[in-house]
Amino acid sequence: MIDITPQRPAGRQSIDSYQAGWFRIAGAVHEGSVIVFPDRVVAWPVAAFAEVTAETLAEVLAGTGVELLLIGTGAEPQPIPKALRAAAREAGIGIDAMATPAACRTYNILLSEQRAVAAALLAL
Fold first, then answer.
1. What strands lie across the sheet with 22-25, from one edge to the other?
2. What is the pLDDT of residues 71-98, one digit of tens each?
C-alpha cells in the first residue's frame, strides 16, 4: 500500500492511499473506481479506460463548479478521446489524463491549493 496522506483541509475529500481495487479517501475506504469531488466521493461504474466517455462523466460535466478534471487512467497513461475533450471544453472544464497514482497525487496538491478540481479514478 502506498500512503499519500496530505494535510487535509477541513471538510475536504483528500486521497489518503490507494491499492489494487480500492482507495481510502478522507478516512473512508471506497472499492472500485470513483469520482472524487472536493466535498464528496461517488462510485464510478467504469472498469476500463475504454469506458471513459462524456456520458460516464456526466456528473462532473453537468455544471458542478469543477474547473479541472483529472482522469486516472489506471496503471498506464492514456490519451483523452477527442469527443471527451470537446465535451469538457464545452462545459468550461479543463481536462488532463495520467496514470491513477499520478492523478491521486496531483488531485491532493490542487485540493490543498483550494482549486475547484475533481478526479475520476480508475481503480488499479
1. 2-3, 15-19, 22-25, 28-31
2. 999 999 999 999 999 999 999 999 999 9
Domain at 43, CATH number: 3.40.1230.10
Structural domain count, the chain: 1
- Assign residue 86 a region: left if phi > 0, alpha if psi is -120 to 50, beta otherwise? alpha
Residue 51's contacts (CB-CB under 8 Å, 6 or more residues apart) are none
* pTM score, whole prediction: 0.90
Return the pLDDT at 3: 62
Q: What residues make up the domain containing 115?
A: 2-121
Tell me the per-residue pLDDT of 15-47, one tens digit each, with 9 for 90 and over: 999 999 999 999 999 999 999 999 999 999 999
- Position 13: which residue type? Q
Count the neighbouring beta carbons within 10 Å of the beta carbon of residue 91: 18
Exposure of 120 by Cβ count < 10 A (0-12 exposed, 13-18 middle, 19+ buried)? buried
